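In this supplementary section we document a worked example of the pipeline. Step one takes a protein sequence of length 354 as its only input; no multiple sequence alignment statistics are reported here. Step two produces a three-dimensional model, which step three serialises into structure tokens for compact storage. The input and output of this example are shown verbatim.
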Amino acid sequence: MVKSVSILLFLSSLAAACGQTSPYAVSFPDQKYYQLQPGELILAAIEEDIPPIQAVEEYFVHAEKADIDNLDLVVGLFIGGESRAYPVRLLSLHEVVNDQMGGIAFAVTWCPLCFSPVVYDRTVDGNVLSFQASGYLLHDNLVLRDDPTDTLWSQLLGQGIKGAQRGTVLEVLPSSLTTWEAWRESYPDSLVLSGVKLGYQGEVPDPYAGYFNSSAVGLGGDANLVDQRLPGKKLVVGISLGETSKAYPLDLIKENRIIQDRLGPYPVMLVWDEKKGINHLYLREIDGEIIDFQLTGTGEYLIDNQTGSIWNIASGTALKGDYVRETLVWIPSQLAYWFAWSSFYPESGLFTSN
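The serialised model returned by step three reads:
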């Protein structure tokens, strides 16, 4: 169990997919093209040592029969009225689960070295891809390989970096990294990927427990920390919109509860939902007008300073007032250790105070 993280963590990814329409975000600028340099890919394992999970219904059990502890971390998804949870212990052993729900084929990916969970839509140009860990690392981050094109993909970027789909960006799906207890409370009818159903006997081993709770930084140690503005394993929520990127330390999001900022031309807002322990990230703009917000006294809702409208924190939708039924645009972002984020985005800004 990862004892250092027992709170809900919002995550998603970096940018809307090139040429694809996300149901969750407007069209932000195309992600910056990553030019792979000679020698950057490091072979750290063989594919057979990290087999992906090709999910079928028989691998899941109802929440009431889950074989995991309350404080174990899971990656949770809610799509089309259905919910599923994927224990991090299993993800650390397999790194990829290919699954589908609500008519969407997706890959749950997890890089334990970078503490970065991302869920991607597997449909690219009308074709459904199947992903697995390639055995390679890029900046100590998981590199995926797909079938049938054999393209290599950066997990943090969600971008094809070598092969037929080089430069293509996968579409991210919103998901949550949370304790099993918190996910089950929010989604009591959720299904959960079961270690027993996958053939594990007894408690599933946690191969990275020591790493998560140590000061070790990736495989290369302190040499991986190219930017020393933060400790290498500080968790940040990173945002990249076009040529602009910025990281927000997770503990400061929780401390400030609401952060209103600007990334280039985009007014953004990060909100800590104290009741659920989730960070939400929105574009605070309606019809070209920048909206300023504050939390209500209970901390369960937002109120805008322009009209006094009341907004739901979780959905970004106005419940009453002049903006009733308006919905803020969800912004893609990425949870990761600082050393990983700053390796991919050396020019990244860093939020330090509100």
